[in-house]
Amino acid sequence: MTDPDNLCYAPGTMIVGKWHRNRYQLIRLLGSGAQGTVYLGHSGDAHPVAIKLAKDRSSLISEAHILEQFGRLQGDPLGPSLYDSDDWVTGGSTVGFCVMEYLEGTSLSEVLKKKAFDWSLVYVLQLLKQLAQLHKTGYIFGDLKPENLMLIRPGYSIRCLDFGGATKIGRSVREYTEFYDRGYWGLGSRRAEPSYDLFACAMILIYAAAGRRITRSSEPQNQLKHFIDSQGKLVPYRHFLLSALSSDYTSAEQMRKELVRAMMAVESHERHNSHAAAARYPRPRTKRKSNGWTPAWLAASMIITAYIVFVVIYVM
Amino acid sequence: MKKGTLKQILLITDGCSNEGEDPVAMAALAREQGITVNVIGVLDQYDSEGGHGLQEVEGIAQSGGGISQIVQTRQLAQTVQMVTKQAMTQTIKGVINQQLQDILGDGETVEDLPPEKRGKVMEVVDEVGETADLNVCILVDTSASMKNKLPTVREALTDLSLSLSARMGENQFCLFLFPGKRKPVQKVIAWTPQLDSIERVFEKISSHGVTPTGPAIKEAIKSFASIAHKRAFYDGDDEAYDDGPR
Q1: ipTM over 0.90
Q2: Which of A164, A212, A229, A288 could form a disulfide with A63 if both were Cys (CB 3.0 to 4.6 A apart)?
Q3: Closest residue of A to B75, CA-based?
Q4: Domain ends where: A101, A124, A153?
Q5: Of A62, A68, A184, the CB nearest to B122
Q6: Which Pfam families does this UniProt record tie to the protein (chain B) (predicted)?
Q7: Could you tell me the residue range of the domain that residue A53 belongs to?
Q8: How many whole angstroms separate alpha carbon A68 and alpha carbon A72?
Q9: Does the beta-carbon distance from A183 to B126 stay under 8 Å?
Q10: Does domain B5-243 have CATH number 3.40.50.410?
């Protein structure tokens, strides 16, 4: 189990901070990525914590720095709280680690596979609210993807994990994943601005509809357009998605409002469909269908009357 | 901190050099002149060469004070930009460590600071990396075995330009191919702030068997002298340039 080169340590390993002298015990592996490895652990008071270990301490430190800054903000937490940041000297090498609040939940990448597309829309809606708050602090998330998002069990609210890619607005994006990167699709720069994150939000919806990351063709922009048109689930959101993909939305708040509007429009469309379904199976309620036409007839006759009156007055 | 210029050579190759000077020695020569040499070894699933050529890749980066990375062709784009940025951070950290040692005495580096203070130093490193000017001379191996990897290399370089142009600092790129048509090394793009429209450059390549990596690095070192000269000329007197003969 123990493999220090890959930051793999056996459960039960004790970690002692070089600077703050705090002790933590590793319980089990939670996940590992390019930047480091995350363990579930506990501190002296048996309180569960997430411990992130990294060889390249510079990226860990900048993440810790950002989490620390968010910790001072008021309102809903954007990410996990940071408890400690230290170095662990083990077997002649030094491993950097930071200790964070352990958020219990399911990765969005798992959830998207199981739940209906309607849920994906709701998650993105929640995400946009979080992003609006994040952008106000002068940072963008950068490496936004389902793998870095988590649904927290009570209330199924969405929270961002892994702030290693968070970048100050105006700088160049620190970390990204090709599929969610607008530069990769030839649809914009890698400069950190709110619309960079918003592009990734739109790609999360495309990912949810496709069920996989589609690979770029030689004409990426048309490819995305055609893909949206080919997916029944995405067609009602065509305008919304294309606007987000071409960085037309300048704030998460604006994009959120547009998504709400699009979702509401689709709902009434579906109700219309259910009417059509009801019509196919004759039931006493079918008579109600004609009610839908009455206001239209009334409006039309009103307009014609008004027009006739107008003409008559004009002629006189 | 004074805004400086970072100089890098980025070598993209898939094997061993077999002509001219020793590339490891040439990389050391580059380092002597404040130029970092980064090397990316490109492999695809058909490559049988394995460890042989790749030892040299590591050696060149080590003596050039840079980073080496061996990747599958499809991961090239992300690696190119990551290596370039990491090497920048490494260089800046090296400079800061040097200054820390001057202030604090022997053996003190950024890594020896407590996490709180290190965070602040890293912020400075980030800031410098974002605003510093960057000159990258790109050397692409166009020997026969590289031929089917070149479209990906081209894409990766366009992507690199995209990544770096998002920075606040100025960028300058130049592109050399080796072996060239008649000479061992051929300059195909002179110093320019953006690497677009490089498609045509790669179309005309005729592949040879030889791989003159050493001479290529030497040429790259020389090219930095020409940009230094040009910069001084611009900075010295803008009007003189305007009044010059057309």
Answers
A1: no
A2: A164
A3: A178
A4: A101
A5: A62
A6: VWA
A7: 4-101
A8: 7
A9: no
A10: yes
